Amino acid sequence: xxxxxxxxxxxxxxxxxxxxxxxxxxxxHGNIGQRDVYCAISLDQEEIFRSATCEKTLDPFFGExxxxxxxxxxxxxxxxxxxxDRPMKTDKVMGKVxxxxxxxxxxxxxxxxxxxxxxxxxxxxxxxxxxxAKLLMVExxxxxxxxxMLEVRIIECSExxxxxxxxxxxxxxxxxxxxxKTESKRTKVKKKTSCPLYDEAFIFENGQRCGGQDRENAxxxxxxxxxxxxxxxxxxxDSSGVFGNAFLGEVKIPISDIALNREHNxxxxxxxxxxxxxxxxxxxxxxxxxxxxxxxxxxxxHFYDSLRNLILQSANKEPITSSMAWLLGEVVSYKLDAxxxxxxxxxHHGQIVPFxxxxxxxxxxxxxxxxxxxxxxTLVSKCMDELMKLxxxxxxxxxxKPTLDLMFRERKACEIDPSKMQVGESRETxxxxxxxxxxxxxxxxxxxxxxxxxxxxxxxxxxxxLANTYFPNQRxxxxxxxSSFVFLRFFAPAILGPKLFDLTSEQIDTQMHRTLTLVSKxxxxxxxxxxxRTSQHNxxxxxxxxxxxxxxxxxxxxxxxxxxxxxSSMPNGNQKAFDTPVILKEGFMIKRAQGRKKFGIKNFxxxxxxxxxxxxxxxxxxGGSVLCAIPVDQILAVERVEESSxxxxxxxxxxxxxxxxxxxxxxxxxxxEWRDLLTKVxxxxxxxxxxxxxxxxxxxxxxxxxxxxxxxxxxSAVSNYLDCDLKIQIDSDREMERIYSLLLDHMEHFKHLxxxxxxxxxxxxxxxxxxxxxxxxxxxxxxxxxxxxxxTHLEQEHRKHRRSLIxxxxxxxxxAPIGDDNYLMLASSIDKxxxxxxxxAQTPCVRKTASNPC
Length: 854
Fold this sequence. Notes:
Blueprint lengths: L8 E14 L12 E9 L2 E5 L3 E4 L3 E9 L6 E10 L4 E11 L10 E5 L12 E13 L2 E16 L10 E9 L4 E5 L10 E9 L12 H6 L4 E10 L8 E9 L9 E6 L16 E13 L6 H8 L11 H8 L3 H14 L3 H14 L13 H13 L1 H18 L16 H20 L7 H17 L6 H20 L13 H20 L15 H7 L2 H14 L15 E10 L11 E9 L2 E5 L6 E6 L5 E4 L2 H4 L4 E5 L4 E5 L3 H14 L9 E2 L4 E2 L2 E2 L13 E2 L14 H14 L1 H13 L7 E3 L2 E3 L2 H32 L12 H10 L24
Antiparallel strand pairs: 1-5, 1-17, 2-3, 2-4, 2-6, 6-7, 8-17, 9-10, 9-16, 10-13, 11-12, 11-14, 14-15, 18-19, 18-24, 19-20, 20-21, 22-23, 23-24, 25-28, 26-27, 29-30
């Protein structure tokens, strides 16, 4: 069955690892050999994330990771390097790395050095413009000679750049003649909007007049005269500042694109000026970045049924080495790529415990050295990592965040290595500081056993029973199989990288990173000791002995053993994880006053918001007195607000019974995160709305539906969230699409395995075929046959969708503006596809990449 575009949704995700920069230019004043450098990540020109500042260096090392779902269309992923000039109290942009969306696939999964280019007004563009143009032969009443005219209509623009928090755009229209002359006209200024509607037409005379007998050849004749060669539309932000009006982008249209007496109507992407960055010769240094960009076109759920069933059968497949999940984990070179979607699919369908148990059973059955249990990056280890991140996010926040927040607030010196201590620091004081933090962390972990998520407890219980089965005479293994995960792969990494686990939004400077390293290292040592009485005091790092002596005592180890006993002895878990309010997200946003008084001023104010599992509150400052707290059970809906209401981007609304609170987030990603979290915490409200107003109530009427009654029922249906569980949000169909994509990428390997199985002796036990262990050749071959058939069926549906997409999308439409290389590359690749052919080695497959999002 063919799939219409209405049944397919685009889901994009980006993971960025900032490495380091080198050879940055020195300052021209002050400490010329040093800079305080940070990096801002932007979609087009909207800042999404910002790194910590690396001080006094021209070769900063960032070492930070950022990942997020992309909530909107974008053309460029950009990295801006800034110098924080403290004496001048300004942050000066040094340069940028800008990557087109369609080129992201070239760098997927690679550590790449990029040259830093200059940032100037001529290169900072985004958005698109809708143009209508036509060449006409106009006859005047008192003139027998028809006039060749050009009419250009500037209809509207979309997604223009915001300049210093505002956009007051206007357009200039310039025609260039073949005799070097130009003629310009301009539109009106549209205030406070990045999507202005102009609908203004301009008339230009094109060349000399010609007689009626030459009308058929009129256009060819005027080309020899003073004829128009090019139309140039330029967008500006109207500014009365020192630097004048800001350039927003331009479009150049050759007159040859416009036919006589035929309307040319198209959207164009705005482009930078030709002069942008032309003087850059790589003298601004370079930046090392690792990118992972995925773009999935997700089909309706039933299209994945056959593939999903094969995946879910893996939990009960005998032997496990003949299952599809095992094959995928063995064939994909980087197991994390397979572990993430597999874990999410099994969790969504309630099969994660038997699946991980089956993988663990096989791995434990092959162990020869108990000290290596679950220490490698095997499929079971990666799947367990993913499960703990999914199910344990809330648990981590309850357990670790209070102490981490204290550490960030106090920022006490904790360095105990004499070779790294600053002048004037006391080792005794620093040792007391780090020991206090470690003790608080260990106490919090020890007391958290009853809050451990039920699904983690169930798996720990299974692991403990497996350890008793395979190692009945080695009692310590029952602890090591659990501590290998919960300490070494859960608590310790979360302490070392709290940003990656969403435990803090604070900047991690060099001193704080060192403190976190010391605490994490000690917690990991405790995890190692629970299954062994071997002393850790003989560490090569002699300065750590004092820490071990105080924190890694028999008392602490016994307490941790009891903790492991509890979390592995309660397979049904504990359902009271959310009794204590826990901070889910906090930060500054801008709110519109709710207007508690009928005639009160409803202005916009910056406030510090805090969302917990119980309520949403805000104050004037971080830590300030709460001005208002809204219980989550009083939130009836959380939805976006149309930009036309306040002419502001990234706004959403909290609908309550008596009033609506309008809030503006700092960027599109931040807005999505707030909306998602708010929706999750209030999802179980029995009185949630089904209809809402996407516009605001202004000037005695709703902007969206023009209803004049403020209490009028909503005019739009509330968003239908796929899964609003507070702990976990899983889009199962999207994960199946990711699995399909991985299978397709490695299809040649699977076909080679299939061929090798046919040539193998049937009935053999545990042979290696193409690098994959086969305990049962017959069942392995059956799995491969089913796998290839399911992938072939899905690929045929994807090809139909790609063809439909090309046939229904016009180049020059708002969905595919002229200048959209992504669309042209897709169209070119589609021409090579034979929809009637099956998936084979000879069939060209269009891979899902940034340049081809299908």
